[in-house]
Amino acid sequence: MENELDKAITERIKAGYSKEAIITELINNGYTKESAEAAVLAHGAEIVALPSFGEQLKASFAYVKSRLDVVALLAAVSLPLTVYMLVVGEDIENASSLEQVWFAIILLFTLLLGPVTNAMATYITLNKDTALSLSSAWSYVWGHIGSLLWLWTLVPLAILGGMVLFIVPGIIVSVYLSLALFVFLKEDKRGLAALLRSHALVRGSWWTILGRTFGVMLLAGIAAGLLGIFGPIGEVAGTIVQAAGMFMMLYVVADCYRVFASNNPECVAEANVSTIYKLLIGLGVFIVVSLGVVLGIGATIVLSGFAP
């Protein structure tokens, strides 16, 4: 039986399964956690333990307090929209033309800078032991902006392709790809390679990633909601708290990534997974193009109504 177990573990390691995925499979087949880990360890690979959620929360909170400059950076992107909503209100359709123009400018500012500041914060968190400055993070991100734009294109397209298949597949894909940015920033794997490496690392730990990211953002959301009771000042403070929560979430995910990557330095997704992502991305492209065509036709019809 032991020989069969060793053979099964070897086959899965060669197939690119992560150690977490193998251990989870063994536990699901009746092995205890201790015996499953021992069986995997017998293959000569030391398993780095993932800290508990409580330990990660404590460590992330301490790190966030030490890097308030990053919190300020993240908050600076979302604060203009919060202030606009407080001053003008949420009824954009009935706002004046000038107010609608300002809303469009602020929204564009948020959409363009949000991913950039998120990448900067992620890069800083991944290199927390070197205490990188914001300028160093900016230099790195801007120096790799082309590859980042490609990654920021592929991930949403893959998720969109999953979303049109009755939503749930899109949620599943979004969690599997949650480490793609971390993989790019730390391992320099680009494009589809980053997506496949993220999938391989998350496999066997899908619920761990979902639960811990959701847990951090839920706590931050509750804190921000409570602050909102205190009026406009509370709303602004809540936005800052949510930025801090985002930074804590990045810390927690980066911590998970470090453990998964350490345990699985050569782990890659199998060929059929690559095919699935290519199909999802293709479906996402089809949806975007189709939507663009429909909107274009609609705009043409509307504009034709104003023709003399």
Structure description:
There is one protein chain. 79% of the residues lie in helices and 0% in strands. Helix 4 packs across helix 13 (231-263) and helix 8 packs antiparallel against helix 9. It has 308 residues and is mostly helical. The protein starts with a helix and ends with a helix. The protein folds into two domains: 1-47; 48-304, no CATH class. It has helices spanning 2-14, 19-28, 33-41, 53-66, 68-88, 97-126, 134-143, 145-163, 168-176, 180-187, 192-202, 206-227, 231-263, 271-304. The chain contains 14 helices and no strands. The mean pLDDT is 89. The radius of gyration is 22 Å and the shape is globular.
Topology of this structure?
Blueprint: H1 2-14, H2 19-28, H3 33-41, H4 53-66, H5 68-88, H6 97-126, H7 134-143, H8 145-163, H9 168-176, H10 180-187, H11 192-202, H12 206-227, H13 231-263, H14 271-304
Helix pairs in contact: 2-3, 4-13, 5-6, 5-13, 6-7, 6-10, 6-13, 8-9, 8-14, 10-11, 12-13
